[in-house]
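Bug report

Summary: structure tokens for Single-stranded DNA-binding protein differ between web form and batch submission.
Environment: batch mode, default settings.
Steps: 1) Submit the sequence below via batch. 2) Compare with the web form result.

Sequence submitted:
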Amino acid sequence: MNSCILMAEVVEEPQLRYTPGDPQVAVAEMFVQFPGQREEDPPYTIKVVGRGNVAQEVHQRCHRGDRIVIEGRLSIVTFERRQEGFKEKRAELTAQKIHYLGSNDGFQTATTSAMPVSTPSTTSRNTTNYVGSESYRSTAATATVPPVSTHTANMANISSVDDDEDEPIPTAKKQSYQSQSIAGNQPDVDDIPF
């Protein structure tokens, strides 16, 4: 199954065009970028293509600087560069659904600090979303976990298990197997002649 979910920032306004023919199909193309895997890596850029109703929606709602989450299929597209005389391969994401997160407020790219924002705590649990190896804190996904109770009043009805019982522990028996050789004059019943 080819399924890709990518959180990225729109770096170029979407371009809308229509396919030739009787049933014209809308096609929207835009470039998005997302952080590299390491802090020193530049941000990655990928072309996103939407068709039909998705293309119309992308053209109307996506603008440069918007943060989006794209669900779609990843493919490799080969095209020829006529000026240089060679073929180039490029990754392309065909969008099936797009979630809009708003403008670029607090979206970390590889050019900014890539410090993880979630820290372990005993009273709260932070949900961290990963794109590459960068981490982003989802403010809507932060949940407060109640502290663990150390109250032992309800422990009176629980019986303890004695681990030092006097049952003998079974031991494994070693068996030695002797190889049985087939005598030269006896036919092997498992031998299948070919």
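Above is the batch result. After comparison, the two runs are identical; trailing whitespace caused the diff. Strands lie at 4-10, 15-18, 26-34, 44-51, 67-81, 86-102, 124-125, 128-131, 134-137, 143-144. Residues 4-107 form a domain with the OB fold (Dihydrolipoamide Acetyltransferase, E2P) fold (CATH 2.40.50.140).
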